[in-house]
């Protein structure tokens, strides 16, 4: 495939634009309508809404019930909470509680994570709150390539899918094919192979974990880095297989640990008899501290995990 | 319209009785007394038009043309029900007839059905969408957010407020700032009309005007139907009805079905005998819906795992 380097944000935009071109039943709603998109697709299909996340989330659902494939963008995940009734009580349950009568293909894009000194409200990573609700799928890409391939799959999926997109990675560049491609939902990727320890990392922390793995290599420790890419459905098999091989698991997440995705991954690994039997050390979580995210860089940096904390976590398990 | 109203009345009386007899689970919210609203509005619609309902949803479903058997089977928790026993009274839908579902969250459906209005506008086929909700929902965010959007985008919508004067047990006088809901339309620059919600002809006339306006691309209308429910907010055991008994009796005298029947008889369009035979026929169809439900199997326990996601 012919490759070129684009940013994570551009990859998301390309996925959106190409899917809008591909399927006339798709349309986009957000509080902001990019002029270039309006020009190409018309103001009918690229709609600027009032600042009313609850309403346009519900509207997306109703349009989906009527044969459309809406894509909405809440912008920062903070604003999704304004639409919580529509997400939790309606979107997640509408297919099930009506006995599967209709399909609701709605894609909800939103940015997560910190590192931007935006303080407590605008630095959150609350995906586990949504993972707890049955009926939603969700992706969390860590590279431009994954962003484009996963977002396309999300848009084409016949279910509501939340696309959690990392604020820290927006300007990150990476190779993305010119041609159309998709990445199936529910497939983790081994970003780096190793044999001594498995690091399951999410979003930005995938890159921190890869840096940590490189440092560990110089110490003679071989780390395998796995990116789940999709949080629901979670690729449990790939994670368990890796841990069965290495016997050690570190989970790195920009969210806090309490009832987080990290807790879910730890449980998926330890409740499996075969995997549990091969563990050589307790499971280690490297997460944000369980506090609202503070503003001052000194405070914020202290709260978020990074490659150094991942290294420390690995050393705890390997006893080096 | 009389037939449809009688169907709702008898369905509600039977489902309430069967609930108290233990055949129907969870909860039912009786629509008795408000039949003229659902029937008056839905009579102005075609099959392709969309509606959305509330926790008190049986009437809207039936008025839109839902199948009695599948409705009763759903209340009975059976596999043959509209939602295969997954929804029950508060979550009945029939997407095939444009009934996008009853909803347990007050006001939530207003946003969702506005999306059906957007879809109709994008389709350009003259379809309209109708939100049914109570005066309580008009105090909630989705009412204001959705109507603002529908007004701005000129969506083919009817917002039909059934003002039965009580949000659960709390009088509307204590919660609706302006006293009457239709006046809120002015804040969004759309027509707001108030009609006697117990007079099906008035409801039908107002709905017809609003539907024409919507189909012509002129945008939404807010219709406030003044009505009253004959029974308590819910049938749940222990539910207290704090409404004044003489008020309830007063409204029962304004029964929308008796009113329509009397009008039709007075105009010579209906005889007592015809009314009787219509009653008998409707009761028979309800009885046969119950028989269908009783004869239908419960879903297998494992069916709880199906339908979480679409293929």
Chart the SSEs and their pairings:
The complex is a heterodimer of chains A (320) and B (311).
Chain A: E1 3-7, H1 8-22, E2 26-30, H2 35-41, E3 46-48, H3 53-65, E4 69-76, H4 84-91, H5 94-97, E5 107-112, H6 127-131, E6 137-139, H7 144-156, E7 161-166, E8 173-177, E9 189-192, E10 197-201, H8 204-218, E11 223-227, E12 230-232, H9 236-246, E13 249-253, H10 261-270, H11 273-278, E14 284-287, H12 297-303, H13 307-318
Parallel strand pairs in A: 2-3, 2-4, 4-5, 5-7, 6-7, 10-11, 10-13, 13-14
Antiparallel strand pairs in A: 1-8, 6-12, 9-11
Helix pairs in contact in A: 1-7, 3-4, 8-13
Chain B: H1 2-20, H2 35-42, E1 50-52, H3 58-63, H4 68-75, H5 108-123, E2 129-134, H6 141-153, E3 157-163, E4 166-167, E5 170-171, E6 192-196, H7 200-215, E7 221-226, H8 245-252, H9 256-266, H10 272-295
Parallel strand pairs in B: 1-2, 2-3, 3-7, 6-7
Antiparallel strand pairs in B: 4-5
Helix pairs in contact in B: 1-10, 2-7, 4-10, 5-6
Characterization of the model:
The complex is a heterodimer of chains A (about 325) and B (about 300). Chain A is of the alpha/beta class and about 325 residues long. Chain A folds into 2 domains: about 5-175, Thiamin diphosphate (ThDP)-binding fold, Pyr/PP domains (Rossmann fold), CATH 3.40.50.970; about 190-320, Rossmann fold, CATH 3.40.50.920. In chain A, about 40% of the residues lie in helices and about 20% in strands. Chain A is built from 13 helices and 14 strands. The longest helix of chain A has 15 residues, at about 10-20. The N and C termini of chain A lie far apart (about 40 Å). Chain B has a domain at about 35-65 and about 90-270: 3-Layer(aba) Sandwich (Rossmann fold). In chain B, the strands form 2 sheets. In chain B, strands 1-2-3-7-6 form a 5-stranded parallel beta sheet, with helices on both faces. In chain B, strands 4-5 form a two-stranded antiparallel ribbon. In chain B, helix 1 (about 1-20) crosses helix 10. Chains A and B meet through helix 3, helix 4 and helix 5 of A and helix 5 and helix 6 of B.
């Amino acid at each position: 495939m012919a490759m070129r380097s684009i940013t994570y944000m551009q990859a998301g935009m390309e996925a959106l634009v190409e899917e809008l071109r591909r399927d006339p039943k798709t349309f986009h709603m957000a509080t902001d309508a990019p002029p270039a998109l309006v020009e190409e697709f018309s103001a009918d299909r690229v709609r600027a809404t009032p600042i009313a996340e609850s309403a346009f989330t519900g509207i997306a659902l109703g349009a989906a019930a009527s044969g459309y494939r809406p894509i909405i963008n809440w912008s920062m995940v903070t604003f999704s909470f304004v639409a919580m009734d529509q997400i939790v009580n309606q979107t997640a349950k509408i297919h099930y509680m009506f006995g599967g009568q209709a399909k609701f293909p709605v894609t909800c894009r939103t940015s997560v994570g910190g590192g931007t000194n935006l303080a407590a409200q605008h630095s959150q990573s609350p995906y586990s709150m949504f993972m707890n609700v049955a009926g939603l799928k969700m992706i969390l890409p860590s590279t431009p390539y994954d962003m484009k391939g996963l977002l396309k799959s999300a848009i084409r999926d016949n279910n509501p899918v939340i696309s959690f997109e990392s604020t820290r990675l927006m300007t990150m560049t990476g190779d993305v094919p010119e041609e159309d491609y998709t990445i199936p939902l529910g497939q983790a990727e081994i970003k780096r192979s190793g044999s001594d320890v498995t690091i399951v990392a999410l979003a930005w922390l995938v890159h921190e974990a890869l840096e940590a793995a490189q440092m560990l290599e110089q110490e003679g420790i071989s780390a395998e880095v796995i990116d789940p890419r999709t949080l629901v459905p979670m690729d449990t098999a790939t994670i368990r297989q890796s841990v069965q091989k290495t016997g050690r698991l570190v989970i790195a997440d920009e969210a806090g640990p309490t009832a987080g995705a990290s807790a879910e991954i730890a449980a998926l690994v330890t409740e499996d008899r075969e995997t549990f039997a091969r563990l050589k050390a307790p499971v280690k979580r490297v997460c944000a501290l369980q506090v609202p995210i503070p503003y001052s860089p000194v405070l914020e940096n202290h709260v978020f995990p990074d490659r150094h904390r991942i290294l420390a976590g690995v050393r705890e398990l390997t006893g080096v | 319209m009389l037939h449809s109203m009688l169907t709702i009345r008898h369905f509600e009386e039977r489902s309430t009785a069967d609930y108290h007899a233990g055949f129907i689970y969870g909860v039912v919210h009786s629509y008795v007394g408000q039949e003229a609203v659902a029937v008056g509005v839905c009579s102005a619609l075609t099959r392709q038009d969309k509606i959305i309902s509330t926790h008190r949803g049986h009437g809207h479903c039936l008025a839109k043309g839902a199948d009695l058997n599948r409705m009763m089977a759903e209340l009975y928790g059976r596999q043959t029900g509209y939602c295969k026993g997954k929804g029950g009274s508060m979550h009945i839908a029939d997407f095939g007839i444009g009934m996008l579902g009853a909803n347990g969250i007050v006001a939530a459906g207003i946003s969702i059905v506005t999306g059906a209005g957007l879809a109709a506008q994008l389709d350009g086929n003259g379809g309209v969408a109708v939100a049914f909700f109570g005066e309580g929902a008009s105090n909630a965010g989705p009412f204001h957010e959705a109507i603002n959007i529908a007004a701005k985008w000129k969506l083919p919508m009817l917002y039909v407020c059934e003002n039965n004067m009580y949000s659960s047990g709390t009088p509307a006088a204590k919660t609706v700032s302006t006293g009457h809901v239709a006046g809120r339309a002015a804040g969004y620059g759309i027509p707001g009309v108030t009609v006697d919600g117990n007079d099906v002809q008035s409801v039908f006339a107002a709905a017809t005007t609003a539907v024409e306006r919507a189909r012509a691309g002129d945008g939404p209308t807010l219709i406030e139907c003044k009505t009253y429910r004959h029974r308590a907010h819910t049938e749940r055991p222990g539910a207290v009805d704090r409404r004044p008994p003489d008020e309830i009796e007063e409204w029962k005298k304004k029964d929308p079905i008796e009113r329509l029947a009397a009008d039709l008889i007075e105009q010579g369009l209906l005889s007592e005998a015809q009314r009787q035979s219509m009653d008998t026929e409707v009761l028979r169809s309800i009885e046969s819906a119950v028989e269908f439900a009783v004869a239908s199997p419960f879903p297998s326990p494992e069916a709880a795992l199906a339908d979480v996601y679409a293929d």
